[in-house]
Write a structure and sequence with these properties.
By secondary structure, the protein is an alpha+beta fold. 21% of the residues lie in helices and 45% in strands. The two termini are 38 Å apart. About 6% of the residues have low confidence.
Length: 302
């Protein structure tokens, strides 16, 4: 009986301690993490760059200018008897080949004299003293071009070798003249190879399977100690009921064997007034009242 009580007390202590620990750490003991997962199909977007290269042959044409819209101003003569005319010139470095030359005056009725000379002829021409020699000069070298009393002229000269060449103008008129001079080496053509790169961008979508995980929490009980204590209380309660049931069962008393007693004749009371019962003890033979249940002498139930 004492062992059962100790067992019950131990179970109650375990249950109380387990419940206390579970309450103190409710999130860890009462809540159990639940993980739900399911496969899903997602799509990733990728930008792809593609670069292509090509060779492009480019042809360019341009005029190689030597003098472009060069303005030369010549004053008019006050007296033609003193001078041949006003002279001005432009000199440039030319390469061997063809040179295209053109000029024109500000008015069509304004005329001038023009020469194209190499450096040696220009030096000779500049040293002449008479107007007739100046206007009638004819150079020895090439190229040599002369155009007298004209408002404009255009030509192409063959330059034999690279060097310095002169374009000279003389105004022998009483009016001033503005001259526009152009000189170029013609149209030059060049070819250039260019590497051209072109980049194209495209978007590609690629599906792939992934897993979606959803964490959640749910009640998980009061902990191991609590349930162990509850189990021990149940076991102790069952044991206690069984123990009490056994103790409440009736016990069988052993009656000592009856001792043979010599039967004796009942004593006759000399008193005429003594009543006669007519009942005696089954064990000891003592006289009993008519309604007696137990013997007054031996105590046996009748």
């Amino acid at each position: 009986m004492k062992a059962g009580r100790v067992f019950v007390i131990l179970a109650v202590v375990l249950a109380v301690v387990g419940a206390g620990l579970s309450y103190a750490d409710y999130s860890g003991s009462l809540q159990v993490p639940l993980v739900l997962s399911q496969p899903i199909t997602a799509t990733s977007t990728v930008t792809v760059a593609t670069t292509s290269r090509e060779l492009v042959l480019t042809t360019t044409s341009s005029t190689k200018w030597i003098l472009q819209d060069e303005i030369i101003s010549l004053s008019g003569l006050e007296s033609s008897s003193q001078y041949c005319g006003w002279v001005d010139s432009r000199h440039v470095y030319l390469e061997a080949g063809q040179t295209h030359v053109s000029y024109h005056t500000d008015r069509k009725e304004h005329v001038v004299d023009f020469w194209m000379m190499n450096e040696a002829d220009y030096t000779r021409w500049g040293n002449l003293r008479y107007c007739s020699e100046v206007r009638g000069f004819h150079g020895n070298g090439r190229p040599f071009v002369a155009k007298l009393s004209n408002s404009g002229y255009e030509f192409t000269a063959d330059v034999p070798s690279a060097g310095t060449y002169y374009f000279a103008f003389m105004n022998g008129n009483p009016y001033s003249v503005d001259i526009t001079l152009n000189a170029d080496m013609g149209v030059q053509t060049s070819e250039v190879t260019i590497t051209r790169e072109t980049t194209y961008y495209s978007t590609q979508e690629k599906p792939y399977v992934t897993e979606q995980v959803t964490p959640s929490t749910g009640p998980g009980g009061f902990g191991v100690l609590f349930y162990a204590g509850i189990g021990l209380i149940a076991v102790a309660a069952i044991a206690l009921v069984v123990s009490r049931t056994r103790s409440a069962a009736p016990r069988t008393e052993r009656v000592p064997p009856a001792t043979a007693v010599a039967q004796r004749a009942p004593a006759v009371s000399p008193s005429p007034s003594a009543p006669s019962t007519g009942k005696f003890c089954m064990n000891c033979g003592a006289p009993l009242p008519a309604r007696a249940t137990f013997c007054n002498e031996c105590g046996l139930r009748q």
